[in-house]
Specification:
Blueprint lengths: L25 H15 L4 H15 L10 H24 L8
Length: about 100
């Protein structure tokens, strides 16, 4: 049912097969993730670390195969380190007797 004057041969990829162009592109996500990872070392590492991981993963195209853009890989690695350090810091701050003497 290709009716209403629009044939299927003219625009075969016009509906539902192309990627949406409204969201941020991969290069932007890689740069944003890298900025979040670097900022996470100084403030709010427990929040900015996972954000950097998510941005890096999305910038890599949600796949480990193929070409990996450098900002995306930096965001992913630094975000993981940042999250790990924040978890260790929170676990150390929650030990019993911390700050007693």
């Amino acid at each position: 049912m290709a009716g209403f004057g629009h044939g299927t041969r003219r625009y075969p990829r016009s509906r539902g097969r192309t990627w949406s162009r409204t969201g941020p592109d991969r290069a932007t996500l890689g740069i944003v993730g890298t900025i979040c990872a670097v900022a996470g070392f100084f403030v709010l590492g427990i929040i900015l670390g996972p954000v950097a991981i998510a941005c890096g993963w999305l910038a890599m195209g949600r796949s480990w195969t193929g070409a990996r853009p450098v900002p995306a890989l930096i965001a992913l690695v630094l975000g993981a380190i940042d999250t790990l350090l924040a978890i260790i810091w929170l676990a150390g701050a929650a030990t019993p007797g911390n700050g007693m003497f």
